[in-house]
Amino acid sequence: MLQINNYSNQILKNISFALKPKQNLLILGFNGAGKSTLAKALCGISPSSVKLFGKQLSHYSSKERTKLINYIPAKLEIFDEYITLGEYLDLSRLHTLLESKKLLKLLAIEHLKNKSCQQLSSGEQQLTMLATAVLHNAKITIFDEPTANLDPNKSRDIFSLLKSGLFQSKIIITHDLTLAYRLGYDVLFIKEGEVDFFGSSEEFFNDSNLDKYFGSSVKMVEEFLVVDF
Amino acid sequence: MKILTYLLALTIIFLSPFHGQIPLELNNITNPTTVDHKLFWDIRLPRVLVAFFAGGILSLGGLIFQSVFKNPMSTPYTLGVATGSTLGVAFAIVFGFSSLLSLFGFLGALLTVLILFGMTLKLQSYETNALLLVGIALAFFYNASLMILFYLSDESQSFEIIHFTMGSVDVVGLEKTLPIILTSFGLLGLSLFYKKELKLLLTSNDYAYLKGVNVKRVNTILLVAVSLAVGVCVSLTGPIGFVGLIIPHILKSIQKKSAEQLIVPIFFYGGLFLVLSDLIARNLGTNSDIPIGIVTAFLGGPFFIYLIMRKR
User: Fold this and answer.
1) Of A87, A82, A84, A89, whose CA–CA distance to A106 is shortest?
2) pTM more than 0.80
3) Which chain A residues are Cβ-neighbours of B207 within 8 angstroms?
4) What are phi and psi of A24, to 5 degrees?
5) Residue numbers in A near B202 (CB within 8 A)
6) Would the CB atoms of B199 and A44 count as touching at under 8 Å?
7) CATH T-level topology, domain B24-311
């Protein structure tokens, strides 16, 4: 479904991995390891030789490309101060039959529909971006830290949303190890721009790996991952 | 309310050619043997038309530049495109290409856009501050080049250049207004055709790309179209500053809508603003008409500052 071979740029070194159809992926790694840089290469924002469904991404037409891949950045970036949440969502309505109204209700942001995107709180912006991912409905959606600005309740909502059948394949970049562990997807760990681990969730989340990557700061307590301060 | 303001604006534009230093006798306008007829059809009307369409092009050009470069300060003027065009025209005057003023104006504008666009590609992103600095540096460079052209020119050429750089909508003959009218409709049509792409560009380039916009292509088409239009405009009127900067901002802050919904109003009110400015320039009672650029800056400047202060 997705394949990248020996991709390097200023930050990343020799990145190679492949995903099978319907496979979901978690990208983990420390700050500055190159996770977002990789995401931008995978969706074509930065030029790369990534292959999607057997064909190089740059060889698809712009329209075909939107069916295949979408990227939800960590922060909402918007230049025009008067574009409202509703208008912003409409721009993402591409390959779905879902009603915007239902989705807004589901995410509890219905009352913000006519509010300018720039005036939303960072949590509300996060939910807005997730809503665009649902409406866009690409075959592969890359989420860059989807729970970064959310309170615990909202994080749990996002978890259920990610687990629901609303998305096709997902690639999720996160620092939230509990979320990563609970999702149980395959893990790609990036360290200083290189792939350091690529394997299943079970293989990754064991004591020796936790110790290797996080030292003494993360511990497994029964079924929970705990950050030890 | 909206219709009322449009009607008022249209009335001003319609009445504008009837006012000037020499009063017109209404009955004579339809009589081709009179001086009034000539005055109205060859001088006043072309002037109002040029003012309207130049104002439209400059305002819409400002809107497009702001959308593409994602910077509220970006306009064909602040980024040096109009100055480039002015230099092109001055070059044509000095080196004997007086019949090709429009072409040279366009080439000057296009060259500047190519430099700016090349910069954005080189910088990998639209680092707008760097771009503005480049625009300012270019404007200084062009002004210096313009000074060199002055030294190379003879007295009549110098006068022609000075008169030109003051900015004026003084155009004699109705047929001369045709290129700018056609260009205006072209630019307006193109902007409306790319309305959705413009809206996506008003969010961010990445978002536009992900939603299926060929960002590079659309940006290139829009920027080339604006430089063409500004080139036509500047070669006819000389540089008229400030319109492109303030009209989009004024309309946005009054209507509180995203810019792509304001394409037609920005064009229309930009035109109205220049018609009004010209009307004032022609009727101040001074011995000769003062350059329209002075009026636009004199009126627009304080009003613009007021709008910015009100927002804070």
Assistant:
1) A89
2) yes
3) 77-78, 91
4) -105, 155
5) 78-80, 83
6) no
7) ABC transporter involved in vitamin B12 uptake, BtuC (1.10.3470)
